[in-house]
Amino acid sequence: MIQRAEVRGLRTEERGTPPILPLPLPSPQSSVLSHQPSKGFTLIELIVVIIIVVVMMGVFLERMLYYVEQAEKTAMVEVANAIQSALVMQYGQILTRGQASDVPLLTQDNPMNWLQKKPRNYAGEFFDPTPLTVESGNWIFDLKTRDLIYVVRNAHYFKPGKDGKKWIRFHVVISYEVSSLPSMQNTPATLTGTLFEPVEPYSWF
User: Where along the chain do its domains lie?
Assistant: First the structure.
């Protein structure tokens, strides 16, 4: 119905009831997408992530063990080098006194006695010890063989000598030189030096 009204002599515009427009219906596809829950990790993806983490942790632990073992090897070599230097000084003192016949006695002495300060991991003297005699990572002196022994703590990359034990045995070796001249064959061998070296070859990567 169209109504007309006048207010204060002015004619108003014709007003009518506004038409009712139909509301847009949501499409089924948009409704489904809007209510679809967010996609999380699947079981396969979770397994893959776990495998990657485990592999990375394994690599990290492997490298960490390697560096720990290298640090132990370096510390052992430093002690061995210090003993070699002390041996050279002992050898020089004997020659300075003119007592070259006393040089063979160095093979029977405990090399730790030559050091001004013994290392903290020196456990003392034992008669015919085994790798289980002391805690690993320590030095010991064998009173039976007169060898100075280092018992390896981290032996993942260590390959022992012929005895198959996880230790390294060191001893003092005296070097002599025999003349090759025919006229000098009957002369005694000449003393050339001393070395502090492993009894058996070993490898420690």
Answer: 46-204
